Model the fold of this input.
Amino acid sequence: MEQVAVTEIVKSLSMLGAAIAIGLGGIGAGIGIGMSGASACEGIGRQPKMSSELFRIMLIGQAATSTPPTFALVVSILLLFGKYEGALLIQGFAALGAGISIGAGAFASGIGSAYPASRACEAIARQPHLRAPFTTLMLLGQAVSQTPVIFSLMVSFMLMFMPAKPDAGFVEFVAVISAGICMGFGAMGPSIGSGMAAESAIIGARHHREPEKAVGLLTRVMLLGQAVAQSTSIYALVVALVLIMLV
Amino acid sequence: MKDITYIATYSFDLFGTSLTVNTFTLINTWIVMAVIIVLAIIGTRSLKGFPNPAQRLAEIYVSAMDKLTKETLDTTTRTYMPLVSTLFIFLLLSNWLGMIPGLAEPTKDLNTPLSLGIMGFFLTHTAAIKEKGIVQYLKEYCQPFFIMAPLNVVGELAKVISISFRLFGNILGGAIIISVVSHMIYSLVLPPFLYVFFGLFVGTIQAFVFTMLTITYISVATK
Amino acid sequence: MDGITGAEIIRAAALLGAGMSMGFGAIGPGIGEGFAAGKACEAIGRNPEEAGLLTRTMLVGQAVSESTGIYALVVALLLIFVVKG
Done:
């Protein structure tokens, strides 16, 4: 009777984690994909001849924007269809922590990676001959601005698949949820910040006299700035790992 | 999950203290080092005024690194160029090594990025003391007030943590994602695509970021 | 779950506080540093000759705005390793 109750609790906590993961993680990308769609619409309105080109760029940018919610979906499915027979109570709390971690991380990363996508659509509509440098900057900036959500995913997987200690008590339950909160919210700021950096790199390329030649320099500065902006998410990763290892 | 975070170790006693060697990481690091030595020998085997393809590639690489170092450090000397070019190619090949089945990235073990980060830390501070003198160097820790000195010291130490955990987290995160996805679905398309993204793309970017940050720390500390 | 002692509650609260300190403390510096990096990129686009100076200024500005993130890290580590409950 006791064992059944624990299994039920673990299952419901996992369901809650799955719901938080995809529910929160979907919001950001929903907003973000809409933003790049809006920019593409404005661009097509201004330059109807460019519609097929802009449509292609919009889809590429949106595909990259929807990477973080895809991570959230993977975690969600793993939590929904996990095995709960004989599970320990700590695994339920760890599942909730995993959901918070990837949910909050994917929420911000969806918005962050939409900034460069939307700015690239706008820039290409105004300067169609420069689509190659703008697309390069957009894709590089998006890929690097998704580093914090990769850390979130890593913490989620660690929480879900960590070996459970049978004698875990109240302190351990709180610690795994705390690790999820730490990494999830810690990934928010850096994702949005590095998305803004990538957006401004595209603006910088537009202001340059010869944008093709500026891409190398701007990519270097953008990567450096994004890397430094992500250090706080790395501190969050360190704290989350310490919290997981202590348990 | 267990096979990802597991690191093969070998312990032995030396003068009464127990030492542990991460054998798998060590072997993979040796493989990377061997590849770099072979590449260097091939690139410089027969140096001519009209270069052969291998020499041409080596020249492109070295001149690109020379330009990068000089632009970042804002100097005309080549003091740090050999270090920078070696660091970049070492990290690049280390991050790419995981794509070969049976081998793993040495950077997936925290010890490798952490030791490289500590190396950069000592390099930065030696360069700063050499450039400014010890008094001016110590004075900068007391900015803006004297009370802030401990926090400035923590900030310097946090740089080592951030530079090494950035590389470690990216490479280990990629490895975990690839292994979980490969266990979940038996698709022929997705895992190779993930290998290309995390191995080639993220690996290259992170190797570049680590190298750039090492030079930039030196540049900021000496200015 | 009936045997939670006061010490356990303190320890658990400290760990939760550590996670929240670092988690929420990372938001501000992350956005701020990204903003600085973005403005530096814009300025380099307008004035590529001053790229070296702009990059150094960006890094110094980011280092200063990162100090609050480092304070959060210090507080989180103190909460984890010093507060034993």
Chain A has one domain: 3-245. The radius of gyration of chain A is 21 Å. The mean pLDDT of chain A is 88.
